[in-house]
Write a structure and sequence with these properties.
Elements (H helix, E strand, L loop, with lengths): L7 H11 L11 E6 L2 E6 L13 H20 L2 E7 L8 E9 L4 H12 L14 H12 L4 E5 L1 H20 L2 H10 L43 E7 L4 H20 L3 E5 L1 H4 L1 H12 L4 E9 L16 H4 E4 L12
Parallel strand pairs: 1-9
Antiparallel strand pairs: 1-2, 2-4, 3-4, 5-6, 6-8, 7-8
Helix pairs in contact: 1-2, 2-3, 2-7, 3-7, 4-7, 5-9
Length: 335
């Protein structure tokens, strides 16, 4: 049960931070609605990349990342949240409902909230500094607290398999003319205002396991990326909407913890977007025991790397509305 409600200015400040969450091609496919004392998260299907993401996993992952960003933002502003995931069995696009009570923020809450503003998808090669198990322990633990499995892949063992799966997934996607149109709409010089991956945030050369964006403005002194950084694989016990949503929350937790520690990160969804390569990843790496959801590259950036520019974001009024009247009663069986 809630114990109050934040002011509308507090809600707007938190949603503005939640809008900084990572999403597939920076599509920001979410909509927040404040009704009475509850904040609701729904998908915005007009920003769903159906050719890239036919199973809508990236859509749910993106919204899950925004959901976790919102929880961190509210915590830093003095509000704890209780989250009802998939609260309405009749309306699958209604992903979460948040209730509130006052709670003093911790130093960690504030540090993670600050990381929201500095986190970037760093597609450049990472430096030679080793990422140790001590570096990864708090990052992996943050993701596991969201209910997912985290596998640290040994690149020396997994590289050949990943290379093969990346090329197979890319061949499948590029053969689809609708996918090529979608790629053109959301990346490079063509995205609509406030969304997409601009040239300022992509590299001149394709990086390890990354999808080929338009050749961008990012450069680095390192040219070889064969062993650049480490690879983490997020997996779940089931393959259902709640698992995808939780993976998005885990992704946010992992990325923010890494950013707060000074690590660079980049999510890699190409292999898990194509069902055949996702199945092979499940078989080869997970022995069919769990469901692969997302790969994440993580490493230390080079000492002389320039700060990354922020990608564009939609205006607050495009992702948030303050409404009156009932929404939908929480379904007790799903709460």
């Amino acid at each position: 049960m809630s114990h109050g409600v934040p002011s509308i200015d507090t809600v707007k400040a938190a949603i503005a931070l939640a809008g900084r969450a990572p999403s597939i091609h920076n599509s920001q496919p979410w909509l927040w609605t404040m009704r009475d004392m509850t904040l609701h998260l729904t998908t915005e299907r007009q920003r769903w990349l159906g050719a890239t993401d036919p199973a809508a996993r990236d859509l749910l992952l993106s919204c899950g990342a925004a959901l976790h960003h919102a929880q961190i933002a509210f915590a830093s502003l003095g509000w704890a949240t209780r989250v009802h995931r998939l609260p309405s069995s009749r309306h699958p696009d209604r992903l979460a409902a948040l209730e509130f009570w006052p709670k003093e923020p911790t130093e960690h809450d504030i540090a993670l909230s600050a990381a929201i503003c500095t986190r970037r998808s760093d597609r450049r090669p990472y430096g030679a500094r080793t990422v140790t198990e001590d570096d990864l322990q708090p990052v992996e633990a943050a993701a596991r607290r969201q209910g997912v499995h985290v596998h640290h892949l040994n690149l020396a063992v997994a590289r050949n398999s990943l290379d093969e799966l990346v090329h197979e997934a890319l061949d499948t996607q590029t053969a689809d003319p609708v996918w090529r149109i979608e790629q053109r709409m959301w990346t490079g010089p063509y995205p609509a205002p406030g969304v997409g991956v601009p040239l300022s945030n992509t590299t001149h050369d394709q990086q390890l396991y990354e999808r080929p964006f338009y050749a961008g403005a990012l450069t680095d002194t390192i040219t070889s990326t064969a062993e650049s950084g480490e690879i983490l694989l997020l997996a779940t016990d089931r393959d259902d909407p709640q698992s995808c949503l939780q993976t998005g929350e885990a992704t946010s937790a992992l990325l923010l913890e890494a950013t707060a520690s000074g690590l660079s990160t980049c999510s890699l969804s190409l292999v898990t977007e194509v069902e055949t390569t996702r199945s092979e990843l499940r078989r080869r790496v997970l022995a069919d025991a769990t469901e692969p959801q997302l790969l994440i590259r993580i490493g230390w950036r080079t000492q002389d790397s320039d700060p990354l520019p922020a990608t564009p974001r939609l205006r607050l009024e495009e992702i948030f509305q303050h409404a009156t009247g009932p929404f939908a009663t929480l379904d007790p069986a799903r709460a």
